[in-house]
Design brief:
With 105 residues, this protein is mainly alpha-helical. The mean pLDDT is 78.
Length: 105
């Protein structure tokens, strides 16, 4: 009798492992995946907004360095001068350096 019980248990175990070994192919569409993970995407929004506002938007200031900037014309309306501002800066030393050289003695 005990032999029959162990034989039944072995058969049930082998059947369950056979079921686990068979691959179940399920295809999830992008819409289903989006619906399933919508809360994770919602958590991404504050981080993306942070980088857009505080890291990407200030790059307009870099553009101003290459323009003859006028606050009345704005960033898009000011004339583009390229490296002229940098050439002028390095060829003519700033006034505060002259002040330092005069008063350092």
């Amino acid at each position: 009798m005990a032999f029959l019980k162990t034989q039944n248990v072995n058969q049930e175990y082998s059947q369950s492992t056979n079921l686990l070994s068979q691959k179940q192919t399920t295809t999830i569409t992008n819409r289903q995946r989006l619906k399933r993970d919508r809360w994770l995407y919602l958590l991404l929004i504050p981080g993306i907004l942070y980088f857009l506002i505080f890291k990407y938007a200030p790059m307009w200031g870099v553009v101003i360095a290459f323009q003859d900037f006028s606050p009345f014309k704005g960033v898009l309306g000011s004339e583009w001068v390229g490296f002229e501002n940098f050439i002028n800066f390095f060829q003519n030393p700033p006034i505060f350096l002259d002040y330092y050289e005069i008063h350092s003695f």
